[in-house]
């Protein structure tokens, strides 16, 4: 008997639609070749175009409509015709907060066949996992705006709770242990942000004392951004607040070949009542949208993380091997990593490789 995985697909905006179809293509191929892996995809046309027509990014009962799926697969949202805070607070953030998907997992690896933009770094030498706190911190919707003209005033607060900090740091250590990784780096800005980040540092020390087998390090965000570029081999698992991990996940992506290769997953490791949420690190890339130039590998590796989450280890591994082979062959690749192929040609090449297994 095979289980059917119910997946909500939200292609979204810009290149989101282009890359998601390649991810779904690889999932359908895995289903074809395995015989007992089945998916039911339901598409939701939510996003900026929907918002322009309906006044909101998703219907009022959008979260309700998603809650019984096993997973949500999203391309990206963001459109120059709408303010970004409206699009993101209208769709992406309500899903992560609403379902309490407190772990954001964003792994990067310097794949053989991909050139590192940094001198003196060889393939496979960068292997970093950013663990992002997904449900509080700087993204808590706490604050407001009042006044007009020279009386305009805005307050933006960050919310940090012991529970929120402790559970994400504990996850980072548990993940490191399970994956036989040896170091966890915590990143804050506790020299300037005196309350939330000081609490974070204190809890990092407490939790790390329970994992004597794992090396630890604490760094400040400014120094860490510099150091990830200067010495990426010095990083293994990184744990950080919502905003700092967001910034760091673009930095780690860029030292391993760019946004086109960086996948992401958001989930609650303790409670799968609600669906996990899977979207690449990159955005809707309006600068290249609609031209078939987007690299679909980030979205395909995101689909692989979704398979892992769904307990489909074998299929996840096959897909990973197919991506590795495509990159190592250096033949069918998009412009961002030095190729001339179109988005769908890369997806087709992954299908070809999967069918050869
Ligand atoms: P972006 O990630 O969309 O693009 C940054 C740069 O990386 C661009 O030059 C783009 O062309 C390139 N790039 C990104 N993905 C690529 C891919 N798959 N292949 C090749 N090149 C790729 O970031 P941005 O320009 O800051 O944001 C654009 C919009 O997306 C904004 O509205 C932003 O709010 C939104 N955004 C959404 C998400 C999401 O939905 N998960 C994530 C990030 C940004
Ligand atoms: C990401 C994005 C989003 C985030 C934005 C668009 C709100 O940058 O997924 O990395 O910061 O969560
Ligand atoms: Mn980001």
Count of individual domains? 2
What small-molecule ligands were found?
nicotinamide-adenine-dinucleotide, 3-isopropylmalic acid, manganese (II) ion
Strand content: 15-25%
Could you describe the largest sheet, including whether it forms a barrel?
Answer: 10 strands, mixed
Report the end-to-end length measured between terminal Cα atoms: 23 Å
**Helical segment count:** 11
**Largest beta sheet: strand ordering:** 2-1-3-12-11-4-5-10-8-9
Structural class: alpha/beta
The unreliable regions are none
Task: Provide the CATH superfamily of the largest domain.
Answer: Isopropylmalate Dehydrogenase
Mean pLDDT: 97
Number of strands: 12
From the alpha-carbon coordinates, what is the Rg to the nearest angstrom? Answer: 20 Å
Overall CATH class of the largest domain: Alpha Beta
How does this model look, in words?
The protein is 41% helix and 21% strand. It has 357 residues and is an alpha/beta fold. The strands form two sheets. The chain has a ten-stranded mixed β-sheet with strand order 2-1-3-12-11-4-5-10-8-9, with helices on both faces. It has a two-stranded antiparallel ribbon with strand order 6-7. Helix 1 (15-34) packs across helix 9. It is globular, with a radius of gyration of 20 Å. It starts with a strand and ends with a helix. Bound molecules: nicotinamide-adenine-dinucleotide, 3-isopropylmalic acid (IPM) and manganese (II) ion (MN). Manganese (II) ion binds next to helix 8.
What's the structural blueprint in terms of helices and strands?
Layout: E1 4-12, H1 15-34, E2 38-43, H2 48-54, H3 62-66, E3 71-76, H4 84-98, E4 103-109, E5 127-133, E6 137-146, E7 153-159, H5 162-178, E8 183-188, H6 196-208, E9 215-220, H7 221-230, E10 237-240, H8 242-255, E11 265-267, E12 276-278, H9 297-309, H10 313-329, H11 343-356
Parallel strand pairs: 1-2, 1-3, 3-12, 5-10, 8-9, 8-10
Antiparallel strand pairs: 4-5, 4-11, 6-7, 11-12
The protein binds nicotinamide-adenine-dinucleotide (NAD), 3-isopropylmalic acid (IPM) and manganese (II) ion (MN).
């Amino acid at each position: 008997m095979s289980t059917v995985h119910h997946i909500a697909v939200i292609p979204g905006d810009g290149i989101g639609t282009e890359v998601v179809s390649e991810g779904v293509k690889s999932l359908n191929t895995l289903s074809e070749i395995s015989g007992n892996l089945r998916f039911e995809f339901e598409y939701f046309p939510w996003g900026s175009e929907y918002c322009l027509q309906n006044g909101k990014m998703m219907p009022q009962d959008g979260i309700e409509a998603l809650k019984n799926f096993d997973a949500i697969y999203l391309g990206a949202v963001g459109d120059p015709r709408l303010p970004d805070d409206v699009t993101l607070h209208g769709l992406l953030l309500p899903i992560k907060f609403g379902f309490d998907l407190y772990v954001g997992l964003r792994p990067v690896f310097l794949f053989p066949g991909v050139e590192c933009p940094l001198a003196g770094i060889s393939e496979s030498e960068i292997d970093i996992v950013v663990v992002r706190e997904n449900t509080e911190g700087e993204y808590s919707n706490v604050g407001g705006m009042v006044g007009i003209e020279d009386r305009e005033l805005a307050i933006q607060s960050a919310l940090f709770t012991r529970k929120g900090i402790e559970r994400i740091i504990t996850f980072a250590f548990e993940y490191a242990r399970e994956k036989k990784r040896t170091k966890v780096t915590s990143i804050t800005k506790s020299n300037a942000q005196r309350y939330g980040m000081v609490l974070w540092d204190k809890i990092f020390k407490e939790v790390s004392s329970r994992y004597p087998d794992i090396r630890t390090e604490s760094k400040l965000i400014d120094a860490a951004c510099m150091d990830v570029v200067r010495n990426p081999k010095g990083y293994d698992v990184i744990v950080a607040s919502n905003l700092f991990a967001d910034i760091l996940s673009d930095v780690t992506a860029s030292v391993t070949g760019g946004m086109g290769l960086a996948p992401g997953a958001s989930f609650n490791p303790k409670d799968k009542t609600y669906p996990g949420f899977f979207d690449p690190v990159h955005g809707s890339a309006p600068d290249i949208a609609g031209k078939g130039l987007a690299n679909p590998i980030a979205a395909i590796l995101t689909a692989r993380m979704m398979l892992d989450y769904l307990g489909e280890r074998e299929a996840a591994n096959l897909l990973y091997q197919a991506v590795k082979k495509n990159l190592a062959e250096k033949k069918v690749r998009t412009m961002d990593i030095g190729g001339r192929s179109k988005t769908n040609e890369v997806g087709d090449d992954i299908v070809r490789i999967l069918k050869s297994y």
